[in-house]
């Protein structure tokens, strides 16, 4: 007679498959448990660089107007305006909305804990008709801070390149 034995447990292949699935799930879930300071800074940096480039384009397209990105004094956002009227933001030509970004709302809703400071006079990064800075004396530096993490955006005075 043949005795039938029933084995209980998992095969080696089943254990490897289970561990592989668990490793993939852990890799997907791990970023959710980390600090989001870097993510907030990255989002804010991308928005800020985009608006700096847009201000450059406006300055090149309108050589008679000195266009600037104006940083709010309290560091809560910025706007794009002319140096003649820095408190009056320009408007988007397609939507008519003012070119204003407030950290913690709309496109910058996820940047609630970010503060922005600038090393330029009057908190204005002004561009000339060639896309460079109006003031050639020093490079403009914008500092984004979230908690203990600081990110620096630097603009070359002669070329206007953003790093």
Describe this structure in words.
With 163 residues, the chain is of the alpha+beta class. 29% of the residues lie in helices and 23% in strands. The protein has 2 helices and 7 strands. The strands form 2 sheets. A 4-stranded antiparallel sheet has the order 3-2-1-5, with helices on one face. Strands 4-6-7 form a 3-stranded antiparallel sheet, with helices on one face. A hairpin with a 2-residue loop joins strand 6 and strand 7. It is elongated, with a radius of gyration of 25 Å.
Do you know the CATH topology?
minor pseudopilin epsh fold
The total count of helices amounts to 2
What share of residues is helical? 25-40%
| Largest pleated sheet | 4 strands, antiparallel
Structural class by secondary-structure content: alpha+beta
CATH arch. level architecture: 3-Layer(bab) Sandwich
Strand segment count? 7
Question: What is the number of domains?
Answer: 1
**Cα-to-Cα separation, first versus last residue:** 81 Å
CATH class value: Alpha Beta
Please provide the ordered H/E string of secondary-structure elements: HHEEEEEEE
Cα shape: elongated
Look at the structure and give the mean pLDDT: 90
Query: What proportion strand?
Result: 15-25%
Low-confidence stretches: none
Quick summary:
By secondary structure, the protein is α+β, with helices and mostly antiparallel strands.
